[in-house]
């Protein structure tokens, strides 16, 4: 059994053994849910799926050539006209 003490500011520390066992890290969110008049459930929220902008800039790491300026791209496109 792990116990914590509620501070005057309403803060609670999660015991180190639980943080390690659950892989918790600083800044991580916790979900609090009142189950009954004398019981609270604390859980780790599941990760949200990445949004459409998650891949922004990712292709740059996969590129094997140096980045090109917009003017260079436009010149190449116009040569095909």
Beta-strand residue fraction? 5-15%
Major sheet details: 2 strands, antiparallel
Helix-strand topology string: HEEHH
Class computed from helices, strands and strand pairing: alpha+beta
N-to-C CA distance: 75 Å
How do the helices and strands line up, and which of them pair or pack?
Blueprint: H1 16-22, E1 31-36, E2 39-43, H2 58-62, H3 70-79
Antiparallel strand pairs: 1-2
Account of the 3D structure:
The chain has 81 residues and is of the alpha+beta class. Helix content is 27%, strand content 14%. It contains three helices and two strands, in the order αββαα. The protein has helices spanning 16-22, 58-62, 70-79, and strands at 31-36, 39-43. It has a two-stranded antiparallel ribbon with strand order 1-2. Strand 1 and strand 2 form a beta hairpin. The longest helix is centred in the C-terminal third of the chain and has 10 residues, at 70-79.
């Amino acid at each position: 059994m792990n116990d914590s003490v509620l501070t005057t500011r309403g803060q609670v520390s999660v015991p180190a053994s639980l943080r390690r066992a659950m892989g918790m890290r600083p800044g991580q969110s916790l979900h609090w849910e009142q189950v009954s008049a004398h019981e609270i459930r604390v859980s780790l929220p599941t990760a949200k799926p990445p949004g459409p902008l998650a891949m922004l800039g990712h292709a740059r790491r996969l590129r094997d050539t140096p980045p090109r300026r917009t003017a260079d791209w436009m010149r190449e496109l116009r040569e095909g006209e």
